[in-house]
Write a structure and sequence with these properties.
- This protein has 19 helices and 8 strands.
- It is mainly α.
- The strands form 4 sheets. A two-stranded antiparallel sheet has the order 1-6. A two-stranded antiparallel ribbon has the order 2-5. Strands 3-4 form a two-stranded antiparallel sheet.
- β3 and β4 form a beta hairpin.
- α9 packs antiparallel against α13, α13 packs antiparallel against α14 and α13 runs antiparallel to α15.
- The longest helix is centred in the first third of the chain and has 26 residues.
- The termini are far apart.
- The N terminus is likely disordered.
Amino acid sequence: MKEDLQYTTPTEVFNDSTLAILNINYIYSANQPAWFGSTGGALGGGGAMCDEFYGDNAFVKGTVNIETVGDIGTAVSVSNNYGKIRVINTTLASLATSTLPQGTKNRYRAQVLFWRAFRYFDLVRLYGGVPLVLTPLQAIGAEAKNAALLPRNSTSECFKQIVSDLDTCIKYLPGKWTGSDYGRITSGAVAAFKGRVLLTYASPQFNPSNDPTRWQAAKVANDAAIQTLTTNGYGLYPSYDGLWFVKGVANTEAVMVTEYNNQTDDNGTNPNGYDNATRPAYLGTKGGSNQPTWDMVKSYPMLDGAAPGASSKYTYSDNTFFDNRDPRFNLTIAYNGCKWPLLGNTNYRLWTYFYYSNAAGTSTKSTEPTSPTGSGFYLRKAIDPSISLSNTQYIGTDWIEIRYAEVLLNQAECAAALGDVTTAYTNLVALRKRAGVEAGADNLYGLQAGMGADQMISAIMTERQIELAFEGKRYWDLRRRKLLESTLNGKKRTGVTITLNNTGTGKDYLLLTRDALANTSLDDLYTTSFTVKSKTLDTYNLAVQSEDYYFGIPTAALQNNSNLLQTNTWGGAFDPLK
């Protein structure tokens, strides 16, 4: 029998280390999360489904139905979760029979197993239990079709399999990759992800009875993650904003990354898309997305770590909302009059106010040259300050899916749930100290002394909101803690309009002097020249449904697989809490 030279067989691919690693690299590119932690599904990073950004969508409107979240796969496609899992399982099967050295196969297999665990966690946090497919199913024939009609595994079985895969990964992966291998999954990244998985399993979404054994398992996993990471040189990077602009092993905070580059030629260009979409439109080639809400702006503590209005040292006022805030505020939120180095101009100031365009004061125009912000703010986290205007579409800042800071917060929450508030205090103090919050006489950096477990968990959730702001974590945190309804429902998200006081000129009379005046005192400029007024962004009260903690299985998926059961909160018999 003649060999068909047009095709390369799986055996040939996985017996050749060069071809094998290309296949594994493809699995990375198909599965790595993008900015905001988006995994390619219906929910993205979730910022517009909570209080970080405004967005009109079914999740906050309360109109979610079983067709809304189709991530479980309603068609045969390599781009959906099960399509990606099939590629992963096929690779694992081929590696099992490969003639490559066993150590090489173990490292390859561990990386591939991680992405299977990653995909199944993405499914389970949406739906609860899903069918576990651990070997490649046959693609054609009646027998193959029947074999693919798998029922949903229980949620507990799914979490057990995810953890099993991750435990295997940890055994065979190095603590650090260097050179061209930087960005691959390390043992520390796997351990940190396992900590995130078990934290989710211990949280009220999956653990309404607050079973302490789950919190203990999550605590052990996060302790191990921190031990592995610190042993391999990971830790908090000294600069809260600078950590986004350090590539490679020098970035001690970057536990799990998706790499991008700033190449400008078509061959190999891989920009992140986030930066150019987020900066003001007139400071890039599109821009203006991802605008923070007034609600998020007001959530930041004061410089002494106390909540706005609760500080005995710093008075808070909506009219000078930027005064004496937690330093992370000015490194995350861009507002009218702030100094924001951009396009290589270290003295650039952002202006977003409106001015009266007629003497009567009956109409206004924005001072922004085009596409003014709708919320009154811009997001400045991880926006490259030095890139030129002509290259903003090529910005290659890496996405950090897991920061060391998150691992500290995960450990703190598990510890607090078990009554160990000492560990929680230590970790929160470390984050606030790095941020530049004032220590205070008690060296608690604004944290309330003597907190019990429940108070501490509440403080940790607030700290997560600030430390991990706009990093695709907020929605998922509210969801796993079952706080979406109490946080959002019955409210409308807000923004601000800042208006230049009317002098009857009908002009932007501050245009030529505003930078100099702001350099002297932005406070005085606001007091004498601007009116700050809040505005509602939503046209309806937010109404997250209780059913959303486990989304329904779409009709097409049920029709394609007669053994799938609908979730009990959507009229079916499947209990996602088992």
